[in-house]
Amino acid sequence: NPHGTKFNRLLVDNYSLENYNQYPQPAGQPDPYALCATCHYVEGTLSKDDLSGTQFKTATKNLHWKHVVEETKSCRVCHDPHGSTQESFIRESFKMNDQDIPVKFTKTANGGSCVTCHTLKSYERE
Q1: Among 62, 100, 113, 120, whose Cα sits 20 to 30 Å from the Cα of 107?
Q2: pLDDT one digit per residue (tens) for the chain, 126 residues
Q3: Cα angle at 87 between 90 and 71, to 5 degrees?
Q4: What gap in Å lies between CA 117 and CA 124, rounded to an integer?
Q5: pTM exceeds 0.90
Q6: CA–CA dist 53, 20 (Å, integer)
Q7: Torsion of CA 64, 74, 22, 123, to 10 degrees
Q8: In the β-sheet with 111-115, what is the strand arrangement from edge to edge?
Q9: Would the CA dihedral through 8, 10, 12, 17 be positive or negative?
Q10: What DSSP character marks residue 43?
């Protein structure tokens, strides 16, 4: 809508620009991932027990759930919805306290590895 919406940056639904969000939101609070949910099955991706909604997982743990729900990191910390040179729209960096924090993701045949907020972490789906 070129003449305005009630959402930030004229988007069609709510999209939080914060690095950290509580999910699910308390009653009466706007869903920080409402825009993401217009294309993605957010409930499945962020389910603790259902591993079928994501490829970012180990054999027993949904790593999207761990990062977004348990650690309250926003999807935008890792993903850039406008594209990236890395797999799965993984961003090259994100801003934290006015600093650019690099994100280095490496896809493997059965998972991947990432260096950013922590030392090298790898995961395998099986």
Answers
A1: 100
A2: 566 788 887 788 888 888 899 998 889 988 999 998 888 888 889 999 889 889 999 999 999 999 999 999 999 899 988 889 999 999 999 888 888 989 999 999 999 999 887 778 888 998
A3: 35
A4: 19
A5: no
A6: 22
A7: 20
A8: 104-108, 111-115, 121-124
A9: negative
A10: H
